[in-house]
Amino acid sequence: MVKVPSLLLSQLVWHDLKVTPRELRLDTLRCGQSFRWKQVQEHHWACALQGQLYVLKEDPLTVYYGMAPNEAEDPQAVSRTAGALRDYFQLDLLSLDDAYQRWNKADPHFNARARFFPGIRMLRQDPWENLICFICSSNNNIARISQMVDKLCSHFGPKIATLDGTDYYGFPALEKLATTQTESKLRALGFGYRAKYIHQTAHMLKDVHPDDWLMSLRKMDYEDTKAALITLPGVGPKVADCICLMSMDHAEAIPVDTHVWQIATRDYGFSKKSTTKTMSPALYKDIGDHFRKLFGSFSGWAHSVLFSAELKVFESKLVDADADTKPKKRKRTR
Fold this sequence. Notes:
- This protein is α+β, with helices and mostly antiparallel strands and about 325 residues long.
- It has 16 helices and eight strands.
- The chain has a five-stranded antiparallel sheet with strand order 2-6-5-4-3. A three-stranded mixed sheet has the order 1-7-8.
- The chain is globular and about 60 Å long.
């Protein structure tokens, strides 16, 4: 049995990621993109990714990553960790400060919310992990999705490390979820109908598609990537758009769920444009096209800021808003 490291937060050596608050805030980790980061203290977060435990903290000026003392003495290990985090947060892809300024000018609704939500970036996640997590998201909320994904990792994934007595597990390999016992085990863990979709998708990726098929979708254009993803069990247009945006490098993808539909009807006039109260494929596309035209490049990133402003977990951020910029009072979701 492989011995996993046992770490203490108080003993970690911290390195500056050298990123301003306008470029990254760790609220990014709790706005419905990833469901695996755990808050270990105020402003401190941890998650096992790609076989390594990542621990982050932020202060008003920057974000830091923590490393075990022995690893912190290895310049290559420090550089690898920094590089992995820069890729994960896509820090070298886009100046978020410049993008916010552009989106503020394009849309008064974005401008009214943006100052309360600085540094919300899109994560660049592993496609396999992202796919399975968003199959879990069907008819679900962030808290329950997080619980399900935690069960998935602790029952099927490898133990990576222990931090302050809490075990952290990696995401299960495809082979672990493609066995004949997977569906029954997941149903016993409370996954419901999603258990079938997870098992069927894992089986399809293992036995039908080439090993690199899922990762190869990053090289295709947006519409082809989305169409390919929809062929997988449990993946509809919204889930496919989440995967396109969060792990397939398609920044123009706009996932439209009931919450985005509420934004579109409340703030962008879609209640007048629509002749139905249900989400038809044509209406779904119209909403996405509206945001793509409004925000231009990286429109999916702008959409994520608007989505974050709807989340109950961030409700306190809007309390002190000025009367002329505070969004209308409304029932909070998720």
